[in-house]
Specification:
GO terms for molecular function: GTPase activator activity; small GTPase binding. This is TBC1 domain family member 13. One of its GO terms (cellular component) is membrane. Acts as a GTPase-activating protein for RAB35. Together with RAB35 may be involved in regulation of insulin-induced glucose transporter SLC2A4/GLUT4 translocation to the plasma membrane in adipocytes. By secondary structure, the chain is mainly α. Helices cover 58% and strands 1% of the residues. The protein is built from 19 helices and two strands. It has helices at 3-16, 23-31, 40-48, 59-87, 109-127, 146-149, 158-171, 207-221, 231-243, 248-251, 254-269, 284-298, 300-308, 317-322, 331-343, 347-361, 363-368, 371-379, 386-398; strands at residues 173-174, 180-181. It has a two-stranded antiparallel ribbon. A hairpin with a 5-residue loop joins strand 1 (173-174) and strand 2. Helix 9 (231-243) packs antiparallel against helix 11. 30% of the residues are buried.
């Protein structure tokens, strides 16, 4: 470890040990990258994402309160509905019209159950593909959720719901006339082979299962947006960072802490996921056009080249902006970029500058390439030192 790195760690420790955190100083330090040693990044992200207040004295009580609140969400949204499902219609005499699976009422418990299942299956499909370049999300967590895995709780877990629904959708589908077809797969399910749904032994949980639970609870608490594909790519780096915290006491609560930090982050970027807002000033279309207007201001030659080739920002910047670049770089690089994003006052204005910097740094290749070559370049951004990108984005910001 270099003396410079040791000095940076000491600078962070000095700021974080104060009774009241100097937020501006913390932002300034974090913008240049947060050391992972001693759980510094985990702690800084929790402060920068407004999960922890600036007053250190209140951290213990607030964390305890929030973690208990998350446990209550688990009880209300997974355990209690799972018990109700297990008990619904245990004998033919018990089944009333209100409890019948074919009851069309929107207030029916079964109707809610089926709608939740649709969301759950999409989440399940997406979280299994998280960060395929590393094995972390497939491995067992050291701290499985005891509330969920308690053998005394006889209820339908999310794992069981997915397994049962997948098995049924592979063999049974109902066509428009209501005739059961035993050979056709469900038209919306398109499930993978059964062996892709193999899970860890009882008493163990993979990290992706924890992420699945976080997203399911978020969807239940936010019915206006629920779950949109891509949210998994936002929660993944957050959870990875908290679940690899060297402080075992904090690592144990990575699930709850991730949930609240993800919720706070989504409060800032949720408009990107709401299609009806795409063309509004807070929508994703406006932000994509802002990337190009900034490029026009900073590098008009490159801007005109992309315009000439009819390469619209929707072709590449939609993913860059919506997923906070989580699909463009390897996970350690994504985390480094997020250090700067979370630290900046106007973090998502800075994201626009990062995207603009990415274009400028490959300008020579873009100026020489044709439409096909440039589209391939933009949709599969070349391996780059992300510190160069962030430095360029800072230069663009300072030159305004």
């Amino acid at each position: 470890m270099s003396s410079l790195h040791k000095s940076r760690i000491a600078d962070f420790q000095d700021v974080l040990k104060e009774p009241s955190i100097a937020l501006e100083k913390l932002r300034e330090l974090s913008f240049s990258g947060i050391p992972c040693e001693g759980g510094l990044r985990c702690l800084c992200w929790k402060i920068l994402l407004n999960y922890l207040p600036l007053e250190r004295a209140s951290w213990t009580s607030i964390l305890a309160k929030q973690r208990e609140l998350y446990a209550q969400f688990l009880r209300e949204m997974i355990i209690q509905p799972g018990i109700a499902k297990a008990n619904m219609g245990t004998s033919r005499e018990d089944v009333t019209f209100e409890d019948h699976p074919l009851n069309p009422s929107p207030d029916s418990r079964w109707n809610t159950y089926f709608k939740d299942n649709e969301v759950l299956l999409q989440i399940d499909k997406d979280v299994r593909r998280l960060c395929p370049d590393i094995s972390f999300f497939q491995r067992a967590t050291e701290y499985p959720c005891l509330l969920i895995l308690d053998p005394q709780n006889e209820f339908e877990t999310l794992r069981k719901r997915v397994e049962q629904t997948t098995l049924k959708s592979q063999t049974v589908a109902r066509n428009r006339s209501g005739v059961t077809n035993m050979s056709s797969p469900h038209k919306n399910a398109a499930p993978p082979a059964l062996n892709e749904y193999e899970v860890l032994p009882n008493g163990c949980e993979a990290h992706w299962e924890v992420v699945e639970r976080i997203l399911f609870i978020y969807a239940k608490l936010n019915p206006g947006i629920a779950y949109v594909q891509g949210m998994n790519e936002i929660v993944g780096p957050l959870y990875y960072t908290f679940a690899t915290d060297p402080n075992s006491e904090w690592k144990e609560h990575a699930e709850a802490d991730t949930f609240f930090c993800f919720t706070n982050l989504m409060a800032e970027i949720r408009d990107n996921f709401i299609k009806s807002l795409d063309d509004s000033q807070c929508g994703i279309t406006y932000k994509m056009e802002k990337v190009y207007s900034t490029l026009k201001e900073k590098d008009v030659e490159l801007y005109l080249k992309l315009q000439e080739q009819n390469i619209r920002p929707q072709f590449f910047a939609f993913r860059w902006l919506t997923l906070l670049l989580s699909q463009e770089f390897l996970l350690p690089d994504v985390i480094r970029i997020w250090d700067s994003l979370f630290a900046d006052h106007n973090r998502f204005d800075f994201l626009l500058l990062v995207c603009c910097a990415m274009l400028i740094l490959i300008r020579e290749q873009l100026l020489e390439g044709d439409f096909t070559v440039n589209m391939r370049l933009l949709q599969d951004y070349p391996i780059t030192d992300v510190c160069h990108i962030l430095q360029k984005a800072k230069e663009l910001q300072d030159s305004k």
